[in-house]
Each structure stands twice: as structure tokens, then as C-alpha cells.
Amino acid sequence: xxxxxxxxxSVAMALASVLGARTRKDGYVEGNGYIVSWCVGHxxxxxxxxxxxxxxxxxxxxxxxxxxxxxxxxxxxGTKKQFGSLKKLMRDSKVDEVICATDAGREGELIFRxxxxxxGCRKPMKRLWISSMEEQAIKDGFASLKDGSCYDSLYQSALxxxxxxxxxxxxxxxxFSVLYNQNLKVGRVQTPTLAMIVDRNQKIKEFTKEKxxxxxxxxxxxxxxxxxxxxxxxxxxxxxDCLERMCEVEKDDVKEKTVRPPKxxxxxxxxxxxxxxxxxxxxxxxxxxxxxxxxxxxxYPRTDSQYLTDEMGESTETLIQMLLGKMPYAEGxxxxxxxxxxxxxxxxxxxxxxxxxMEVAKADIGELKERNRKILYLISARVLTAxxxxxxxxxxxxxxxxxxxxxxxxxxxTKQEGFKAIENKLKQFFGVKSEKEEPELDIWAGKHYGPCDxxxxxxFTQPPKQYTxxxxxxxxxxxxxxxxxxxTEKKGLGTPATRAGIIEKxxxxxxxxRKGKQIxxxxxxxxxxxxxxxxxxxxxxxxxxxxxxxxxxxGEIAPEQFMTGIKNMLTMMLNGCDAISEExxxxxxxxxxxxxxxxxxxxxxxxxxxxxxxxxxxxxxxxKENRYLQSMEKTMDKKMAAELLKSGCVHVKDLxxxxxxxxxxxxxxxxxxxxxxxxxxxxxxQKKPKNKSKKK
Length: 696
Prior knowledge:
By secondary structure, the chain is of the alpha+beta class. The chain folds into five domains: 2-161, 3-Layer(aba) Sandwich (Rossmann fold); 162-205 and 466-582, Topoisomerase I, domain 2 (Orthogonal Bundle); 211-260 and 391-460, Topoisomerase I, domain 3, CATH 2.70.20; 267-386, Topoisomerase I, domain 4 (Orthogonal Bundle); 595-683, no CATH class. The chain contains 20 helices and 25 strands. A seven-stranded mixed sheet has the order 2-3-4-1-7-8-9, sandwiched between helices. The chain has a four-stranded antiparallel sheet with strand order 14-13-12-15. A four-stranded antiparallel sheet has the order 19-20-21-22, with helices on one face. Strand 3 (28-31) and strand 4 (34-38) form a beta hairpin. Helix 9 crosses helix 11 (370-386). It starts with a strand and ends in a 13-residue tail after the last strand.
């Protein structure tokens, strides 16, 4: 029998259905010569530093760098049961072949290989590599399985990435935490990303606004402006001279411009568009498109390609016809498709661009989650726009004279709407405002306007804008590519699959925060970037590491070469850390503590998820969402935590009893042992009787 291992139970069930395995067992499905089982994300991970040596439980400068000679892995907590099931199945005598059917990418490969290695499996291994969960795609995938060894380089790349993240995270976090007596998190990719956010914020902070004025002449849709005036009176004089006067288009520089249709979506461009259109975070978009992939509605999401393979031309034509009839925004749309624009096998490596599947034809789109539905509409519209005609227009740059004063105007005249017609229909459908564009004017040299109205407008020079998720993703993608052309091999920070997670880690660690669509650095985030050496926060260096991982994936460099570079960087980091002043060590202590730790006496600070002890060797923490309080529909807030630290007890109102279906109040008591473990209990103090005056 063949053992098929998927990444998730839902994917396993979809594969089993196609393979004809329908008999459900404990942890797997069996039938038709197949056993189909699953992981639940990562089952095996790298061991913690303390699992190599007990001394690493304490964070000490003299123990650095921590570089394992022989790397160890462990079964992760909460996954031991499923790992045990997979190990048993792999060792079952009736299983003669194991098929890796995890997601077809670096992370999916790592998830499977670590289970395979940890279970000590030596049976022949094949690899399922598909870009769609449609029935036919699954059948074709199983008909063309490759030997697992064909993906050894992909596995080595994934493993090296995990080791590099471990080495930088463990050593850099410990080093700067010890130096600054603060629990700091430094990451190979997240720290350079944070540095970009901090740098942009600093440029905005240092920017000095300058006021300027412009005089306008206006007639119907024509609105021409002067150059900038520093003094308002100068602009006022021009406006006064031109009021109720005629003007003439003296010069008209006309150029015909052609805008090519946009490419299909890779994950990053889809995340950016969803953020622009709907304000979705990168993670929200990834979650939505991953869910629809498992529902067979879209193709594999974690791709960095914006093209389809050459042999997909006919199926894409069929897909387009289906979308024209299915998508509500396409009603009454007139356009001729040209699928050749999106076909290029040379620009497709592991997976092609994200497109809908033919399963959409049978789906009730109205039943989808709102977020999923909107993103499906985006993906579908992009197939139509990418295969549509180009947008062609005349660009007019005009010089206009009025009473001896010179004004300037840019305008356009559309000659072929092309893909813009689809984009505009989609925006109308969603009620999204279009970006301000040049006015549509029928204009030419020698044309007269007037008599004109005139006025003066006040303006300020503008600083760079704070990063949004859209622009940050773009910056991460382009990092290390100062002159990125269409054909440039992208380096970038992270990969399409990991960028959303990197942003979320920065938010979770409270080094960055969201304000509307903006992503801003916190005070701690700013200080962290200030204290770190340049090479740890260098976007170009980290992008080059990502590029090396890509080269390793293609078998062009050896894992040892990459790891040597990482180890050399750690040595450089330690050598560059001279003794810092006592004043410098207090850089992070500007925040307010909420009390002292009952275990070790160190200061306790608030984070996003808990109230934690600042001593790295102490494990005391009060979690905002803990099981004890959640059972009574209550969360720990700052006021409660501060009182518990002060006196070990706090009076709490609005506790809920499910058994009695009523709210109540009680005293919450906290008790902690030397390991930092916290226990809670309740007491019910007797209410003081109310004094009642006796009637005479």
C-alpha cells in the first residue's frame, strides 16, 4: 500500500476522495491501495538551546555564541499523538511507499521531511507536486509523481533557513537582552523589516514642511496652474491679472501612450491589492486564499510567479468564458481576450500565478465568507484584466498664456479603454473610489478658453508617507534590488509565503503597531533598531541571504556555504559588542512597570498578551487570556494585574457562572511558586449588613 501524507486534515480528505480511500480509521483514511493521513502543520521542530545543555536555561554573555555541532529535533507539544500515528503507519509492513503530499513549497517540504526523518523511515519516497486542489489536477499529479530525491535541494534550503533563523534569533536575542537587561527579540528577517519601518518614520519626523502658493485659471473642466510662489501676494497678483480674461493654449506636447495590462497575481501583489482595496492585512489575505485553495476554488497561493505555463492556454480561455458569465461585475462587459499575454513557462518555477479554478462555476459564491468572496472577485478580475487590451491614451502637456502670465496643464484623451474598463467596473461594484487622474479634455494648441475664473491655492511640501501593509510588502519584495527590472531575479526580505508572518511577529512583539492602514514603530521598536549593529538590520544583506537560499533550492550552492556565512556573522556580532555604559543599559526602561515580580523581585511590564517579569531567567507571567478567568468570561487587565502584584488579591466584578447562568463578584487570589507557575483561587467575603433605621 501507498501512504500519502498531507499537510492538513482537510487536504487529506480531498486527496482521499479522489484516490478512492473512504474507510475512516483513527488518524487516517484507507482504501483502494492507499492510506491517506496528515500532519497538523509542523509536528517536528528544532530543539531549544536548553535541550542541548542545561546551562543554556540561563541567559549569559559568556555562553555565546550557541552553535550546535549536531542539530537536534523534537516532536512539538500538542502534536505527539498525530506524530505517533504517522510513525506507526510509516513502519507498517503493508506500507511499501510513502508519498509526500504536503503543500508544494519550501515549508511544506520541511514539514514532511522532518517527520520522515524523525520517524526513522527509510521506505521509498515520492513527491506530489500540484498547484490546484481540483480533481483533475490531483489525478494528474498522482500520475506524474517524482522521486523524493528530486526535492532534496528544496529540503536543504528549508532546513538551512530554519537553522539560520534559530542561530540569529537565539544568539542575537540573548546577547542584546543580557546587555540591556530587557527581553528583546531579534530576528534574521523581522529586524531588517523593522529597520525599514523605523527609518521611514524618522524621515517623516525630520521633514520640515514648507508653504507655497499657486495661482489658477479655471474654465469648465480646464484648471491650469502656475509654478510655485513662496509669497502669497505674488500669486494673488497673477490671479487678479487673469480674472475674467481669455486664455490661449500656446503649446501642446502630445504623446500617445500605451499602458500594458497588469500581470496575474502572485501572493505579494494580491496581498498588496487587497490591502489597498479593502484594508486587509497580508495575513488575512493569505488565510482567505489558503482556505479557498483547500476548497478547490483557487490555485496554490504561496507563489512568486505572475505567469501561467504555455500549455495552459486552452484551459485559460475556458476559464475566462466561465468568469464572464459568473462574475457580477462582468455583466455587459465587452472585451476580447488574449491569453498569450499571461503564458510564459520560463517565468514559472514551482507554481504558476494565482487564478480561480473551474470549480467556481459550480460554487455558490454568495455563501462564501465576505473576505473570501471579495478576494475571489479580485483574483477573477485580474485574469480578465491581464488578458485584455492595453489602455491607450493621448497625453497632453500644455502651456497656457493668460494676460502675459504662463500656466501649465496636464490632460489626457482616452483612445482605447482596454483593461481599464474592467478595473473601473470592479471598483464601482465595490464602491471603491478611483485614484485621482488627469482630466479628460479635448484640447489642442491654439484653443481659447474664457472668460476664466481665477483663484489662489495654498499648499505644503509633503513628507514621505508612513508604510501601509501594501507599501511595506512592496519594499520587502524589492529589498536588495536597487534597480529592479521586469526580468531581474528578485531577492527581497522573506518570501511570498513568509512576509505576512514577519509583519504579524513585529506587531505581536510590540515593536510595531497598526494605526488604521499605517504600520508604525513603537518606542521599543525604535530603540531596538538604534542599538543593533548595521549588519543585523541591513535589508540588502538579508535579501542576499534569501537569494542564497533560492540558489540552494536550485542546487547552485551547498548548504555548508550558506551556514558558514551565518556563523561568521555571529562571530562579527559578538566581536563588535564592547562593554556598554550603565546609562546605555537603561535605554528600554522608559516604559512604566506595573509592579514587582513575586518570585524574583524584578520589574513586571505589560506586553500585548501578558504581564511578564523582566528577568530572563524568571518564568513568572500573568496572561491576559488565561483558562481560569476565561471560564468565567473574564480577561486580566492592567489594573487587576497591578493589584495582584501589590497584595496578591483583587476584587473582581462581572464574573460569569455557566452552571447558574448568572453574574457574580468575588476576590481573586494569586499564588506563585519558585518556578513562576501561577495558581488562582476565589473567595467570597461576606457582605456587610446594611444599617437600617428602626421605625418609631
